[in-house]
Amino acid sequence: MQLFSALALCGNGTNKLLEDGEGLVKIMVDSLDSSNPYSVQIEGLRLAQCLMTSEQGCSKIIKLSCEPIVKAIITLMSKWSLDAEKLAKDQMSILVEACRLALITHWEGDHHFYFWKAGVDRVLLRLIIGNSDTTQQSLHSLSLQEQIIKLEEVFDTDVLLPLRPYVWDILGCLTANCMEDFFPKMHGNETVFNVLVVCACMAFVDSILTSRQISQGNACHSSESEPASRAVLMMIYSPSKYISSKARFILSEVLALKGKDYVGYLLDSLKAASSGNKFGIPSNFRLVISLTSLACYSALPKYQKHVIQHGGINILSSFISWWFDNPVHLNRSSVAPHVQSHFSGRTCCWPSSEDWEGEDMLLLFGLVALAELINAEDHCGIFQNQMELRAAFIRDLQEICINNSYSGPRWYAAYILRHLGLYGFPSKFGREFRELLTDNEHSDVELIIKNQEPVRVHGVILLVRCPSLLPPEELLKEKVFDSSYKQDSDSCNSIITKVRLSAHVDCQSLTKLLEYIYSGSFEAGEDLVKKLKILAKHCNLQSLVQLLCGSNPKWGTPFPSFDFTSALEPAGRNFSDIILEAETSGPSNQDCSSCSISVLHLHVHKVILWPSCEYLRALFQSGMQESHSLTIKVPVCWDSLVKLVSWFYSGELPRPISGCLWDNLSKEDKLRELEPYVELCSLAQFWLLEDLHEKCFRLIVSILDSCQYLSITIIQMAANLNQWKLVEVAAEYLSPMYHHLRNSSEFDALDEHLIEIIRAASVQFSQRNGHLVTLT
Fold first, then answer.
1. Contact yes or no for 518/436 (Cβ under 8 A)
2. Which of 190, 427, 536, 736 is deepest in the core (most CB within 10 A)?
3. Pfam families under this entry (predicted)?
4. What whole-number distance in Å separates Cα of residue 365 and Cα of residue 297?
């Protein structure tokens, strides 16, 4: 198992192990049996943690062995006892590793049902208040206020304190992934869960006190502060109506019993951060606690008004604007050390981040708090008579939706925009595609509304963005590019599909829906929103329905993408009106069901290429023979063409092999991986694709930076393609090696003027580094 764990430290290794993982998973689950020695159990737990590091790995193992692995985790979290108020070292090690593995509740899936079924709430409560059955039983008959007083007597036990951060994280993840109709009584004792919520709310209040003590220079234990605050936040914003209402009620009661009002202190922390004064800026820990706490306070009616009266909306808006100018990217491990596992710093080849907030937790929690306040306040009065400030704030929120790397901030930015009358999910593609609504030239579908003029739209866009608007037979039919299409792409658009819509669909609602389909967002008043809810539900646009209904974003939900890649699949060929071939591509090894072309090719769509590329737009409008041709030869190799089309359809440039797989490639294979990007650099410059050119250039430079020996081949290729900026960079990387290379055979393949460029770069390198220069 140690060997498997070592292999699973690599993301690629994990994928390989799980390709046929039934045997491995069985060994792993068997090792967690409590009859095994502690050392075997610990190695089994650590192997499971490695294999389930990502959502993909977790999902694969859950499909293979869901209930057994959950039962094993719960058993190991339950089997412990105190000896003279102490816990044996081996038992603590098992508990820590089992709790770490229980954090698979971070991922959505069937395992949540089995955790509740196995009584996870009872297990977590025991880890909080200790091994006192008497205490647990006595709490059942007490009022909430009496429970709080009783729990304070046992809450500060130090024996199990190292486990508290894990307990709060597990509780938070479980409640964040519940269904709307979830009720604790479905799986166990309601009182146990409620007591657990009371404990979390007590820890929440303590976390505010802790942040104050730290800011005043007092030493205190803070390891559970951030996890406890986060757990309460996740319960308050849980999809479960029961959990959300219960958490809000209990937190209000705990705060009232404590008799302290921390609103002023929390808001002062944010004002200090966004004031621009470098002195007195609170620590990142204090900012995280302040923002999380404000997000919780803002959800409690009793305190919500208090926050607003203290200028909470303006303070949070200013903080978000400050963050934009001074982005603070924060790893959670810096404020919650328990997330660092036994393997931290030793893994490789995993996705950079799959967390909802990523490194932007300050931004996310600020947006959550602000969204709740704006939802409560009359949002029509926000930024009243401050149109410039309102416009700037909307631009900031749209920028988050378009360019932020993490789903959490993007969802909440869209949620706040909703309260400002802008609905949907802004994207870079959406900005480009909005103008297609008025383009009838490439439209191939006609939507017929009762007593209204027909609306011309594009089938491929409906196929990807809203297939419910297309008749089923249109989705199933298969278009064949026979000899009649051979020369003329215009004939592909000659057939117009007519779709008659229900009499209940009005023109205004349809216009706004199409605006959403084409651009990702739209502006609308409340009366129109009511109509759009019904239409969006019928069209099965769940993300839009959630936004229109004003539901809080569910923690962990991916942000809706504006990606047309699925249009390249067989169903998308029905709407294709052009074929792209690479200039240098071999014969096809796959039969294309849509045509008889014998070389590698892609069926694409003018309407998707049109907004993204000025060169192709001009070509299609030129009236020249090429503008009517069904086939366009692109002057790149096949691999480059595939990457180019991916860029057009998704806005993302596929990256080369990386990590361990890259490290183990030969020099020739690495060059084969890199060469398509050099080709695309040249094509992007010719086709006026500035963003693509910049992406390719940076990618090539980043690879040459770590593999400088590839520069000698890349410099000649770049020169052949007139990429002189890339030639200069490659020459810089070769300059320290010039005196060695000039006497080797590697220079024989280079043009003389390139050797001269490298020599000149070598002279400059020597001068910069104070070396003796040899001019010959």
1. yes
2. 536
3. BTB (PF00651)
4. 12
